[in-house]
Amino acid sequence: MITLVLEPEQKAAMPQVATQANDDTKISVRDFDFFYGSAKVLHGISLDIPARKVTALIGPSGCGKSTFIRSINRMNDIITDARGKGTILIDGKNVYGGDTDVVELRRRVGMVFQKSNPFPKSIYDNVAYGLRIGGLRNKRQLDEIIERSLTRAALWHEVKDRLHASALALSGGQQQRLCIARALAVDPEILLMDEPASALDPIATSKIEELIYELKDNYTIVIVTHNMQQAARVSDRTAFFMLGRLVEEGDKNTIFMNPKEKMTEDYVTGRFG
Amino acid sequence: MTANLRRRKIYSRIFETLCALAVIVALIPLAMILFYVIKEGFGALNLDFFTHMPKPVGESGGGMANAIAGTLILIGIAAAFAVPVGCLCGIHLSEYPATKFSSIVRFAADVLNGVPSIVVGIFAYGILVLPVKRFSAIAGGVALGLLMIPIVVRTTEELLRLVPGGLREGALALGATRGRAVFSVIVPAALPGILTGILVALARVAGETAPLLFTAFNNRFWSTSLTQPIASLTVQIFTYAISPYDDWHRQAWAGAFLLVMMILALSILARLAVRRLERMNRS
To answer: Which residues of chain A does B166 touch, with a Cβ-Cβ cutoff of 8 Å?
Structure first.
């Protein structure tokens, strides 16, 4: 396994060849179960998620795809009585191992939520948040990373003249891109997106999708979506979840055009769900 | 059908009228209090009232400078002691809402909130006045602080719980520790509301008299010493109001007017803070 540690500038400048050469497994899930109290909501999930690709998780409401994506950065830890069993390896290291530092994990695995959640602070302070808790105080460095993060999230030109205005004054789509910029600022390796566009209008949605397309050169992206067209548009690989089980996973064309399972076919052709 | 409809309309009209009457009955005392306080107090108020000391009996004029300063000092002591305790306690309750300890603390705060203020005064008298055999500003401030704590605790807790859960998740997802998330995101988001709670609590205790009678006592002279008895607007109003002198009665009205205005100002400030918070939560 090759783990490249690159400065963001280098990452941005990386040639396409390198991206293709590193088509290896970033996240490897084996026999992963998840419980809320005594209710078992995920049953023996096994899945390999490739580096620098977009993997979309699709499936009907309540099928466990959100629970699964939130297990990757252990976001479910804050729910009482929730626990995961099995292994989720990131670069070969078990996320659920006893020696995992959750804070460290979450810095490597960024997350964007369904409902945009900018802090009631300025645009600048939102993006600076993760950097500051990481101990970065240098104003020049902060300015630089914030500009770069907002540029990558395709928001810089809309906000560069009002960086110190409240983030809450932005539109819904801008707020969501701000949350993406905020996640990118701490330079994670993996970006988890839990229905990032479900609360947005079509124009804002297409902006987010373009963004995902551009980000996958540098980040491993896992996206939960209800919208099958969206999964077909943005993903490289697609995994279909149903009733807490992973029904089928594969190349997106296979899943959408030529699925092995009847259930997958019924779902992607809109016969139910 | 039409008879039925007519009956319903009549009932509706009757109940609307009853509701309007009830509102008027509830507002009459407030209007009368304000009317009398303004009518009697505003005329008696002048610059001397703020800058001069009380005159001896028989001499007219003078003011309540010492009582105004005393009240500010007393609520200052109360806030200095109740705000940190109350806020931290409220943060604990909102962070660990379901533990046994939290439910005990919540119950204790509610009970303390219901304790008559004179009982709190006796308590402060017992622990802070009797041992040193001297009334003091500290004892009065602590008595007022004890009355403030439960209000601050419960408003802090409730307002922190209003902060959307997504903000906490956002902070944690960026690698914040739990404590960091609380103090850098959740508390600042609720801060205007918490300040409101503090202002409301201050307004409430600024008007207290009973717990000061045997803690801060009163003082005819200018004193800012925390270990000496100290004057307060409320006790001064009480003393002057039960005296037989017209001039003192006028002073009492002026004091009452000032007190009402102080509390009104605190309430308006609190309102403004709440409005800001609501605007923020809507967007």
So the answer is: 113, 115, 117
DSSP helix/strand/coil, A222: strand
pLDDT tens digits, one per residue of B225-280: 888 899 999 999 999 999 888 888 888 999 999 999 988 888 888 888 777 766 66
| Burial class (CB within 10 angstroms; exposed 0-12, middle 13-18, buried 19+) of A7 | exposed
- The residue among B212, B216, B214, B235 whose CA lies nearest residue B224 is B216
Q: What does the block give as tokens for B142?
A: 């602590």
Q: Does A98 touch chain B (CB under 8 A)?
A: no
ipTM of the complex in this document: 0.84
Q: How many Cβ atoms sit within 10 Å of the Cβ of residue A245?
A: 15
**Whole-number Cα distances in Å, B229 to A13, B80, B243:** 74, 19, 21
State CA B211 to chain mean position distance: 14
The C-alpha atoms of residue B157 and residue B72 are separated, in whole angstroms, by 27
Mean pLDDT of B138-152: 94
Nearest chain B alpha carbon to A167: B283
Decide: A194 and A113 in contact? Cβ < 8 Å: yes
Interface residue B162 vs chain A (CB under 8 A): no
Residues 235-254 of A with CB under 8 A from B: none
B25-75: per-residue pLDDT in tens?
999 998 998 998 999 888 888 888 888 888 887 777 788 889 999 999 999
Of the listed ranges A13-17, B101-105, B180-184, the least confidently predicted one is A13-17
User: Minimal Cα–Cα distance from A75 to chain B, Å?
Assistant: 7
